[in-house]
Amino acid sequence: MANRLFRKKSVDQILSDAEHGGSGLAKILGVKDLISLGIAAIVGAGIFSTIGLASYNGGPAVSLLFVFVAFACVFTALSYAQFASTVPVSGSAYTYAYVAFGELFAWIIGWALVLEYAVSNMVVAISWSQYFVSMLEGFGINLPKWMTMAPGYALDAHTKALSVGADQLENIEKVALQAYETAPRFLDMPIIFDMPAGLITVLVTALVYIGIKESQRASNIMVIIKVGIILAVIFGGIFFVKPENWTPFAPNGLAGVMSGVAAVFFAFIGFDSISTTAEECKNPQRDLPRAMIYCLVICAVLYVAITIVLTGMVNYKELNVKDPLAYVFSYVGFDHMAGIISVTSVIAITSALLVFQLAQPRIWMTMSRDGLLWKKFSTIHPKYKTPSFATIVTGFVVAIPALFFKMDFFVDLTSVGTFFAFILVCAGVLYMDHSGLSARSKFKVPYINGKYIVGVGMIIALILTYKYSDENLSHWLEMGSANILIHKSLVIIFWLTWAVLSVMSFKYKFSLLPVIGVLINLYLMSELGASNWIIFVIWLLIGLVIYFSYGYKNSKLNKTKEA
After folding, report:
1. Helix 212-237 × helix 195-210 angle, to 10°
2. What domain count does the chain have?
3. DSSP string, 64-84
4. From CA 124, how far away is CA 92, in angstroms rounded?
5. Last residue of a domain, one of 426, 444, 466
6. Cβ contacts of 131 within 8 Å, gap of 6 or more
7. Per the UniProt record, which residue ranges are transmembrane (predicted)?
8. CB 279: neighbour CB atoms within 10 A?
9. Domain residues for 530?
């Protein structure tokens, strides 16, 4: 059974399945279209909302966090690019894991990618709703409060009002209480839901269903608009910068800067969505690697520049708002610009929603083609040439939770699945180099011999940690073994992984850059809360139940070997 769990698909087999398996996807995307889709995915809710909270926690130094996360993503993007040039089919990290690690890991990654795409789209849809409602209010249009939020917010406000009184509520809580009190009732239960979040998901799903060409055109237009406004913010905001706002540069120290890891990383997770469109590219082996690197560099520069400008225009303490870009211009008295940004932010977040909604069905389509999901998921619409059934299911999976769940329930959870996928893709390149598969790659991660560097780097890191983290180490000693196991297990796994990679790098002369990608992503994972990991483990267990009850016995590889 163990051999069957880790059965692998050859590159030739995957390419043959894509070519002869009735894919039928339209090949129309060039490198400019791919870059546009990448920018659409990356420059979305992150730059228009979560950048404010990250700046509030980390101060001006959060710009360095964007550099660090972009740096981490470069190593991952190089690894993605090598896989994309070797296995140019839809499926992203799921397909790459099937080649490198076998079926069980492929399933786990495919299931984890649901968190990356579907769950992150719930966050994006809810964020879009907040901006859309604010924009309508700017035009004097006020939707009923019970139609614009998750019921959890209203119930929390009602409970708090009963305990401390309505006068003690904050402004946002008062709005939520108003939703509870004015909502229509059914069996004495208030009917409260986030209608704009559900509606935009349905509309974007319909666009994705109609075709890749229509989606690509809409994405290109929205990217031009939002990049234009971001450049206007950067170059216009320079004139309002006060250098004294950059002091202190890191008011809350390294802990404050790193507290924004989930929010900052959420801003970058979209670059791998490009790889899911491989079968719709004119020349995927050439264009996918280029597009991944180009869009990541462009977006990193935009993020760093806009963070420096924002924290220079106003004090970082003022940035804990949901619409930081619009807020800073209102703060300096440029209300006209603030209004333009509010409208543009709705367009920007719509484009991110579109790309994520485009990616998820194509992963399910690939998994279905391999027999791990029901055949219906690989159905291609005869007219629109899109994975029709998978697209409709994705619409339901995103729209229903977006109508009723709080956004903070999903935010950090999206990063967990993404880090997991990124680590396996980087590790997969090490496997390709060791097994000789890299000889088939049209693009390769630049090789730097890590034989001695990985181990020496670990020794230096341990010395620096011991020398400059005395308080941290003493805190560990006070925690006790049980608490260390609960709260610091990922940190322990990080150091153990580094030790193992040091030994293997010395033995097999591993390429340094993928090793760095594994370590940086694992380190960032260790910064996420334990509660996110508990939910992630439960999610994986549910996925394993589905795999062993259906995918294991219906896998095409299984049926081939039985025959």
Report:
1. 130
2. 3
3. HHHHHHHHHHHHHHHHHHHHH
4. 21
5. 426
6. 48, 49, 322, 323, 342, 345, 346, 349
7. 34-56, 62-81, 191-211, 223-241, 253-271, 291-316, 336-359, 384-404, 410-431, 452-469, 481-501, 508-526, 532-552
8. 22
9. 435-562
164, two tokens: 């401390």
Same structural domain, 165 and 65: no
| Beta-carbon-side half-sphere exposure of residue 345 (alpha carbons within 13 Å) | 31
Residue type, 355: V
CA distances from 325 to 61, 161, 401 (A): 18, 32, 28
Residues of the chain with pLDDT under 70: 1-2, 18-25, 44-50, 262-263, 266-267, 322, 407-413, 469-487, 529, 560-563
pLDDT for 1 equals: 62
Where does residue 212 rank: exposed (0-12), middle (13-18), buried (19+ CB within 10 A)?
buried
pTM of the model: 0.83
Q: What is the pLDDT of residue 480?
A: 65
23 and 96 fall within a common domain? yes
Position 485 scores a pLDDT of 64
Determine the Cα–Cα distance for residues 150 and 156; give it in Å rounded to an integer. 11
For the chain, what is the largest distance between any 2 Cα atoms, rounded to a whole number of angstroms?
A: 73
Residues contacting 123, CB < 8 A, separation 6+: 45, 266, 407, 410, 411, 414
CA 121, CA 269: separation in Å to the nearest integer? 12
CB contact at 8 A, 368 and 182: no
Instruction: Please provide the DSSP assignment of 237-271 as one string.
Output: HGGG--GGGG-SSSTTHHHHHHTTHHHHHHHHGGG
pLDDT at 64: 85
39, 230 contact by CB (below 8 A):
no
Q: Classify each residue of 5-25 as buried b or exposed e, where b means 16 or more C-beta atoms within 10 Å of its C-beta.
A: eebbbebeebeebbeebebeb
User: By C-alpha distance, which of 14, 99, 85 is closest to 369?
Assistant: 14
pLDDT of residue 244: 92
**Contact criterion met (CB below 8 Å) for 59 and 249:** yes
Domain termination residue (choose one: 401, 426, 451): 426
- The backbone torsions φ and ψ at residue 334, rounded to the nearest 5 degrees and listed phi first, read -105, 70
CA angle 84, 369, 435 (to 5 degrees): 40
Distance CA 151, CA 146 (A): 8
Q: How far apart are CA 260 and CA 369, in angstroms?
A: 38
Instruction: Say if 145 falls within a structural domain.
Output: no
Tell me how far apart the terminal alpha carbons of the chain are, to the nearest angstrom.
17
pLDDT score at 458: 96
**Predicted pLDDT of residue 382:** 86
Q: What is the SS3 assignment for 470-522? A: HHHHHHHHHHCHHHHHHHCHHHHHHHHHHHHHHHHHHHHCCEHHHHHHHHHHH
